Amino acid sequence: MTKQPFTTRIDADVLALARQLADAERRSITALIEVALLEYAERRGISVAETSQEVAQPKRGK
Questions:
Q1: Least crowded by CB within 10 Å, which of 3, 17, 32, 48?
Q2: Per-residue pLDDT at 14 exceeds 60
Q3: For the stretch 45-57, what's the b/e string if a residue is b when 16 or more beta carbons lie within 10 angstroms of its beta carbon?
């Protein structure tokens, strides 16, 4: 899986929580977010392969 840069805005309290969790798990905040998203998708029965295929399909213009 290639890594893509991604910028976002996040509430300061949520960011502080992310830093605390990342420090406790000896991960970066980026890795923590990635794991959280993957676990969230897994609980809903969505795999990374399914979403990659959806993104890879070109959209047809008008």
A1: 3
A2: yes
A3: eeeeeeeeeeeee
Residue 52 Cα distances to 7, 28, 40, 46, angstroms: 20, 23, 16, 11
Q: Which amino acid is residue 32, in one-letter code? A: L
Instruction: Dig out the tokens for 4 from the structure.
Output: 């893509």
pTM of the shown model: 0.68
CA dist 42 and 50 (Å) reads 11
Whether the predicted pLDDT of 53 surpasses 80: no
Gap between the Cα atoms of 16 and 36, Å rounded: 16
pLDDT surpassing 60 at residue 56: no
